[in-house]
Prior knowledge:
The protein has helices at residues 8-22, 59-64, 68-79, 92-104, and strands spanning 27-30, 42-46, 49-55, 83-87. The protein is of the alpha+beta class. The mean pLDDT is 91.
Amino acid sequence: MIDLGKLERDYQAGLIKRIEARFPGCLVLKNDEQYIQGIPDLTVLHGRRYALLEVKKSLEDIFKQTQPNQVYYITTIVHMGGIADFICPENEVEVLDAIQRAFES
């Protein structure tokens, strides 16, 4: 069970561990928002596939705290053929399931 009271950075640290456990051999990179404002927080490299994830601490934050440039990069990455999404405790299972399906295709 994921604690919904956690800070985003705490949730992100646990999320990285869960991603690494779910996708053995993957590489999870933390992106620098100071370098490209709005680029998703995490890049997951797995074989020839990749996913970028914008981490939020709650579903409410996805709707209230998302910046236009974050939406731009998620949309751009998807149009480039990549996997990109917002992830939070409430949608984590669905997002990781979708990534797994994409990685296996």
